[in-house]
Amino acid sequence: MSTQPLCLTCGTQYAAPRADCPICEDERQYVPPGGQQWTDLATLRADGDLKPRVEEQGPGLIGVGSDPRFAIGQRALLVRAASGNFLWDCSAYLDDELIGRITELGGITGIAISHPHYYTTMVEWAHAFDVPVYLHENDQQWIGRPDPSIQLWTGTTLDVSPDLQLINLGVHFAGGTVMHWPEGEEGRGALLTGDIVQVIPDRTHVGFMYSYPNLIPERPSVVRHAAELLEPYAFGAIYGAWWDAIVHTDAHNVVQRSAKRYLTYVS
């Protein structure tokens, strides 16, 4: 298992030791009061404190993460599409047990990640399953460990398989991306959003932020454009970045009325 440095706060893996974590020094994240701290996958695995967590999150969607949570704490989603399993977003922790459990589920054909906060150990995942990682080119500067497995894409949409499409909304980060699965949610359509479109405790609305920990709102023009981009898509549910962060019903309307509410308050 790799000994390349992992930021303890955000889980980003870097190609070589360094003093700072650019992800955390950016105003959308933070360096904790105690200062920058590092670990690596080999240390985490040897400590034995983290265990894989693999649980169903919805029809054809398997959550993938760790227990307890590590770094930012997001969970990934294994999308069991007709074209093959696909990993949406990335969990920082990876060990042989987790690789084995995903292999038993049929492995994965590729990985796509919503934004740099979840890049984490993406290269380790790509090597473990011999698959590409799709990232929007607008966020290329945040890649901490360059690798041939990383496939940069441009523009507004990308079909990563016959039944999965990436959409660059530009919320939170310039490359902020969501995934549309038309056959998800038993044919009603599913939108996988990380925290580009944030599922909030009030499931009748979603949130849009430039920085979540530092409470910086997203620019109105960006939110307006994102709502316009999503308007033509059909989806009955939204799956966010956290365990059980799901809007189960009326999801398309939830996005549109949330954008209108947001613009009313910040414009």
- Sheet with the most strands? 7 strands, mixed
C-alpha geometry: globular
Number of DSSP strand runs:
19
Low-confidence stretches: none
Distance between the termini: 49 Å
Helix content: 10-25%
Separate helix tally: 6
Write the CATH fold name. Answer: Metallo-beta-lactamase, Chain A
Average pLDDT level: 98
Task: Say which CATH homologous superfamily is assigned.
Answer: Ribonuclease Z/Hydroxyacylglutathione hydrolase-like
Relative strand content: 25-35%
CATH class: Alpha Beta
Radius of gyration, rounded?
A: 17 Å
How many independent structural domains? 1
Protein name: MBL fold metallo-hydrolase
InterPro entries: Metallo-B-lactamas, RibonucZ/Hydroxyglut_hydro
GO molecular function, one term: hydrolase activity
Keywords: Hydrolase
